[in-house]
Amino acid sequence: MIPPAVMDNHTENYNYGAYFAPYRSEGMEMLGEGLTGENLAAIPEHWLSYPAPPASAHTMLALVYVFFTAAALIGNGLVIFIFSASKSLRTPSNLLVVQLAVLDFLMMLKAPIFIYNSIKRGFASGVIGCQIFAFMGSVSGIGAGLTNACIAYDRHSTITRPLDGRLSRGKVLLMMVCVWVYTAPWAILPQLQIWGRYVPEGFLTSCTFDYLTATFDNKLFVGCMFVCVYIFPMTAILYFYSGIVKQVFAHEAALREQAKKMNVDSLRSNQNAAAESAEIRIAKAALTVCFLYVASWTPYGVMSLIGAFGDQNLLTPGVTMIPALACKGVACIDPWVYAISHPKYRQELQKRMPWLQIDEPDDNASNSTSNTANSSAPA
Known about the structure:
The chain is 68% helix and 2% strand. By secondary structure, it is an all-alpha fold. The chain has a two-stranded antiparallel sheet.
């Protein structure tokens, strides 16, 4: 256990060298060495038994975060700007895409704290920086997961009920408010240390909720958080996207059956035989979204369960930095999946930023050309 003097934020003269003595090898610096007072008390005891990582590891992570920050801020910033500036893109469904971009943008706004800590090779920003970093991460991470579930519901409703399934603006706004209301307690309670707390992790350059303290209250918090902010959105995303794929497959099968009865190759007009079927394209899109969510948040979920209920020796400082990188990486990819790959978004981006050299054909021009060709063709 950490000596009582460490837990007392007002005690500044404790001999911390004696505390680190059992772990120190000759000439080896330990994690947390040199910290005093509340900064040392904020660090879970688990990390204090590991040697400090080499400077090259800090430098590499700082460079990776610089790249992620630039990519995420530019990508999500463009999404927010284009969707806000273009009237044609301000549909109820796209409001959810904008909210996801805002949350991903917020997630990377805290990256300078991590980069600063990495440059200083430790817990340089202190308790205040740690609380800001972890709070912003909780709000953006939990909110993004729930928003992904809302987007999945919107797409499922639109595809499975094409006549009356489109969500109204009021319903979408209500869903957006519910996301923020649901997210707030999970971010605020650890911040105020009412239930759970925010602590440094890994190399002590990033912070998250405490999944290492072996108390009943803390284990209950980790378990509830795992179910409510990971399992619930994951279940919704898998259910809605699997429903979309099932619906599209059933529709395509019905078309093929009808074409077979009519002795024609296909009921679709101007179908390209070499093109992928609609069901395959929809399945790929659904699998991409589901894979991104699983790949970005499952490492954190598994790590928190191991820390609270499993063998904590598996959680070395290097291992625990991997989940942090995974969830930051998805903030760079989300804009491409939900917006930048969308033809109408690319057309608007082309109009406002022609210097980007985006070669996206205009729908209106294509329709006009098609109509002209059809009108001049023989009956």
